[in-house]
Amino acid sequence: MTQYRITLLPGDGIGPEIMAIAKQVLQVVGRQFDLSFEFTEALTGGAAIDATGEPLPPETLDKCRDSDSVLLAAIGGYKWDNLPRHLRPETGLLGLRAGLGLFANLRPAKILPQLVNASSLKKEIVEGVDIMVIRELTGGVYFGQPKGIFTTETGEKRGVNTMAYTESEIDRIGRVGFETALKRGGKLCSVDKANVLDVSQLWRDRMGELAKEYPSVELSHLYVDNAAMQLIRYPKQFDTIVTSNLFGDILSDAAAMLTGSIGMLPSASLGIAGTPGVFEPVHGSAPDIAGKDLANPLAQVLSAAMMLRYALNQPQASDRIEQAVMKVLDKGDRTGDIMAPGMNQLGCKAMGEAIIKALS
Ligand code: IPM
Ligand code: MG
Q1: Element (H, E) at 315
Q2: Ligand 1 atom at minimum distance from 137 CA
Q3: Of 281, 225, 237, 319, which is closest to residue 105 (Cα–Cα)?
Q4: Which of 115, 265, 323, 355 has its CA 20 to 30 A from that of 163?
């Protein structure tokens, strides 16, 4: 029996509800595939602030470092929105990314045939869309120095952030882009703002250099404003996108919304080989529906499937979970966020039970 140590970070809002279901799903596929999971829960985000006064307690980071992989639900909520920046749940998330060296964020946006009508775009535009957005996650303007709010000589305040990338930072995310494109449709679109930003010019130059190592990948470049437009205009032109931290933050939300159902999308954040990755839904903590048994647990369940595939090298167990999700959707089961006329509306727990049933 293969043993895995998994750290669970349920976080805030709907996090604990959807995490409970993903955990059950892992236990069931574990029995089916002879895998044993040892789960450790740790505090993060608002829950950690309430319990310990900080959003990422050192023991949480230690537990994560000590495990084979990390499954995160979601963090944040109105309650903590007005705290000073170093105490906000988001700062805990950034600390987790930096602390584990998670420089590559993989955010797939794939339209499921069962949910094609959930998109706000026309069916012809979105049908068949299958995009992987690869976002650099530990550099760029999110982390660049100097940063802060300073007072100028005239006594006026001045807010500063710095968008900076070194060649090695660009190369390592670029390689993830090329390698991923190789395993997918063979097309990589690098997104930057090289017409204005020097940091983007370096990015574009390095992507061009790397392309020589990957002759079978078709590399293209787009400016970020055009990329945003193209995602809405003709999303099927994209296969794999690679971009910097801030541009990826924005474009991955746009790409996710093409599917019309952000409650369905998993993501992976990966560091150098041998360090644990973090798998989490693309959606947030949805504090407005927390504790009401209304949340869609499917992105969390699919994040567990992504973890099995990318971190634990258990593609068959991963397939089993993804197939169970498809079965449930084929049957017409829906949570409120993806509900459509004639379908069968379920709460979070009942959706979990439907998946468990579909697993066997
Ligand atoms: C995301 C989120 C985070 C980010 C926030 C919550 C810090 O928007 O994961 O996309 O900006 O990276
Ligand atoms: Mg975001």
Answers
A1: helix 315-330
A2: 12
A3: 281
A4: 265
Q: Is the residue at 8 inside a domain?
A: yes
- pLDDT, tens digit (0-9, with 9 covering 90-100), for 147-195: 999 999 999 999 999 999 999 999 999 999 999 999 999 999 999 999 9
Q: Can you tell me whether residue 263 is helix, strand or coil? A: helix
Pocket lining for ligand 1, CB < 6 angstroms: 90, 93, 249
**Model-wide pTM > 0.70:** yes
Distance 117 CA to ligand 1 centre (A): 27
Distance of CA 312 to the CA centre of its chain: 17
**119 in a domain, yes or no?**
no
pLDDT in tens, 99-157: 999 999 999 999 999 999 889 999 999 999 999 999 999 999 999 999 999 999 999 99
Amino acid 274 reads G
**The domain containing residue 236 runs over which residues?**
130-257
Residue 147 forms part of a structural domain: yes
Alpha carbons 93 and 97: distance in angstroms, whole number? 6
Output the CA 297–ligand 2 centroid distance in Å.
19
Mutation pick for ligand 1 pocket among 56, 80, 90, 282 (CB with most ligand atoms within 8 Å): 90
Question: How far, CA to CA in Å, does 330 sit from each of 103, 205, 257, 301, 360?
Answer: 36, 46, 21, 17, 16
